[in-house]
Design a protein that fits this description.
6 helices, alpha+beta, four-stranded antiparallel β-sheet
């Protein structure tokens, strides 16, 4: 979808959101502006410099009345080159009266693992996780944008690249950047009050440095239009972007030598490769193939 069409889709989503939320007496949630206007959607084009790519996970549901502002935010983020924005639809809102056709129980399990790591007792939608570290309500759009800006300005430590030389093959390569220190794996960075006990159970600090990064492959659908007939969002004509269709672990990397790996990959959907600290910690590198 080109920027003009994407902007038009964003305008439609935003207008529908305002109308639906006002009708439900929830317009106060929209006090924080999403964008000055769809025509002014900020693009981060390939020619724009950024220190590192940011991975944003949005946990959302078609049956959640508070989710449309966060879903609309994805329309802008999907256009940006410095952000890999991924929508993970969860199934725990299906009981309200509308089953999300993109929901996967594994998405909720991934969300729960983040909660446990950070010492949170609950999960909710819409919820955003930035680089596996920052967790925030998805409708706090301006705060989400601030977190992205802070993360994108940090210099990367790993050079990760992917390419597709053949129809069903994905080649992955990674190496430490010159002068870049390896991530402190299984660290307490970003973890909640339970961190000391968790770390003690998993490894000592010296041992933790030896734990390899998790190598993950994500596939997603770029966009979809859904008519919601029942539940809290009944009557909405909803637009969704970067809808995750699969998320799997395909290997590990100990960073002691450059990584070179070929994996089978079928279909035309975009692909994202992620390197993440074990225990579903910080995402330290990511690359996308649209």
């Amino acid at each position: 979808m080109n920027p003009s069409a994407m902007a038009q889709a964003l305008r439609q989503v935003w207008q529908e959101t305002c109308s639906a939320m006002a009708g439900a007496g929830m317009l106060a949630l929209l006090a924080v502006p999403l964008l000055p206007g769809a025509a002014q959607a900020q693009l981060s084009l390939p020619t724009e410099d950024f220190a590192s790519q940011v991975v944003l996970e949005l946990y959302t549901s078609q049956g959640c009345a508070a989710c449309p502002p966060a879903d609309a935010m994805m329309a802008e983020l999907a256009m940006r080159e410095d952000v890999i924005a991924l929508a993970l639809h969860v199934d725990y809102w299906d009981y309200i009266g509308w089953a999300d056709i993109f929901a996967d129980p594994e998405h909720a399990e991934r969300q729960k693992r983040y909660a446990r790591r950070h010492g949170h007792s609950t999960i909710y939608t819409p919820q955003v996780v930035v680089n596996g570290v920052d967790i925030i309500e998805g409708f706090r759009v301006m705060q989400v944008m601030d977190l992205i800006a802070a993360r994108r300005s940090r210099a990367g430590r790993i050079d990760l690249s992917i390419e597709r030389p053949g129809e069903d093959v994905l080649e992955i390569s990674a190496q430490m950047l010159e002068g870049g220190a390896p991530p402190l794996l299984l660290s307490s960075r970003g973890m909640g009050p339970a961190a000391p006990a968790m770390l003690g159970a998993l490894a000592t600090e010296d041992e933790s440095r030896q734990q390899p990064l998790s190598l993950q492959l994500v596939r997603y659908m770029p966009a979809a239009h859904i008519e919601i007939l029942e539940g809290e969002n009944a009557g909405r004509q909803a637009q969704y972007f970067n809808i995750v269709t699969s998320w799997e672990m395909i290997g590990t990397w100990d960073m002691r030598a450059p990584l070179r790996l070929s994996v089978q990959m079928e279909g035309e959907e975009p692909a994202v490769v992620i390197l993440q600290e074990p225990g579903q910690g910080e995402i330290v590198a990511a690359a996308r193939l649209r």
